[in-house]
TrEMBL record:
Residues 221-321 form the Fe2OG dioxygenase domain. Belongs to the iron/ascorbate-dependent oxidoreductase family. SUPFAM superfamilies: Clavaminate synthase-like. It comes from the Eukaryota. It comes from Nepenthes gracilis (Slender pitcher plant). PROSITE patterns: FE2OG_OXY (PS51471). InterPro entries: DIOX_N, IPNS-like_FE2OG_OXY, IPNS-like_sf, Oxoglu/Fe-dep_dioxygenase_dom. GO terms for molecular function: dioxygenase activity; metal ion binding. Keywords: Iron, Metal-binding, Oxidoreductase. Pfam families: 2OG-FeII_Oxy, DIOX_N. The keyword Cytoplasm does not apply. This is Fe2OG dioxygenase domain-containing protein. Coiled coil: none annotated. Gene3D superfamilies: B-lactam Antibiotic, Isopenicillin N Synthase, Chain.
Length: 372
């Protein structure tokens, strides 16, 4: 079937959204396939309600300066205890008040960051017939490539294609990864795992716990790497790159290119997270908010669509949802007291992820389902 564009919307009387979603999915070409076909108006399934597209930007430069996402410099924390103590305080403040911060001097070399982004570009620039072999909605696959994990659940489709790789705790064999991004992904994943363990140490200390606490809870055991491709959109004012959402993991480490578009919701206002060469964006996930009993905040964020340039990013999710574990996660007992009772019921990670995926990116928090 032909996709319904907004130019035809007023004439449409029997719009069959389910059929259009399936037709798009069946192409196995993703959003990039639409752009490569030369469309000038976006299909109706991509049109978002106007209220979800609003962006209440501050009027003055002073307000913008006051609302910059925190930047944390990790340089020297392994050598100087006082330096580490200061960084822990910065991370505590950022995790409590923003849920987001950028890290610099994190130890991952610039050439590897560039290679990882270039690998994402090479993957999506492959011929559609080559990529089709990876296109699937079966989460059990080593590599999952598709457009919108919640394609059939979400209220509107996002202008984004993604590949998903499970890199830890069981690292795929090299031959199981696409040659165009194989070496960079393997090395980058190793480096992010090392950084993740350090970040969980600092977050443990920020909670007043021993440094190994969150790592001992297996928060850093599992890693999924998602390569996102946001093609330039002919009508960016009508759609989103990624809808408003919070992440369903313990912690996310994001590498973004220099195009921009990531925004975080802070004080009921969308604030840009500006790209910084060599920096990585870190944000608290739902599961860390749950086990910290709301001490740390999993904050909603989104990616706006771009009308002139494609955008690339690599999101690394620390989570154990890929492991068949029955471990229950609830508010950490050492953080609880008479004045700070548990605010969530316990859950397994897999059950939480299942609920999150079933709900889709509908603009509401998946944590509400677990509130006491």
């Amino acid at each position: 079937m032909a996709f319904t564009s907004i130019g035809c919307e007023s004439k449409e009387t029997n719009y069959d959204r389910a059929s259009e979603l399936k037709a798009f999915d069946d192409t196995k070409a993703g959003v990039k396939g639409l752009v490569d076909a030369g469309i000038s108006t976006i299909p109706r399934i991509f049109i978002h309600p106007p209220h979800t597209l609003s962006y209440s930007a501050p009027d003055s430069k002073a307000e913008v300066t006051a609302k910059n996402v925190p930047i944390v410099d990790l340089n020297g924390i392994e050598l100087y205890p006082n330096r580490r103590k200061g960084v822990v305080e910065e991370i505590r403040d950022a995790s409590e008040n923003w849920g987001f911060f950028q890290v610099i001097n994190h130890g991952i070399p610039m050439h590897l960051l560039d290679e990882m982004l270039d690998g994402v570009r090479r993957f999506f620039d492959q011929d559609t017939e080559v990529k089709k072999q990876y296109y699937t909605r079966e989460q059990s696959k080593k590599l999952v490539y598709n457009s919108n994990f919640d394609l059939y659940n979400g209220s509107a489709v996002n202008w984004r294609d993604t590949f998903f790789l499970k890199m830890a705790p069981q690292t795929p064999r090299p031959e199981e990864l696409p040659a165009v991004c194989r070496e960079g992904t393997i090395e980058y994943s190793k480096q992010v795992m090392k950084l993740g363990r350090l970040l969980f140490e600092l977050l443990s200390e920020a909670l007043g716990l021993k440094p190994s606490y969150l790592n001992d809870m297996d928060c850093s055991e599992g890693l999924a790497v998602l390569g996102h491709y946001y093609p330039a959109c002919p009508q960016p004012e009508l759609t989103m790159g990624t809808s408003k959402h919070a992440d369903n993991d313990f912690l996310t480490v994001l590498l973004q290119d220099q195009i921009g578009g990531l925004q975080v919701l802070h004080d009921n206002q969308w604030v840009d997270v500006p790209p910084m060469p060599g920096a990585l964006v870190v944000n608290v996930g739902d599961l860390l908010q749950l086990i910290s009993n709301d001490k740390f905040k999993s904050v909603e964020h989104r990616v706006i669509a771009n009308g002139t340039s494609r955008r690339l990013s690599v999101a690394c999710f620390f989570s154990t949802d890929l492991l068949p574990k029955a471990r229950m996660y609830g508010p950490i007992k050492e953080l609880l007291s008479k004045d700070n009772p548990p605010r969530y019921r316990e859950t397994t990670v897999r059950d939480y992820i299942t609920h999150y995926h079933r709900k889709g990116l509908d603009g509401s928090s998946a944590l509400l389902h677990y509130r006491l």
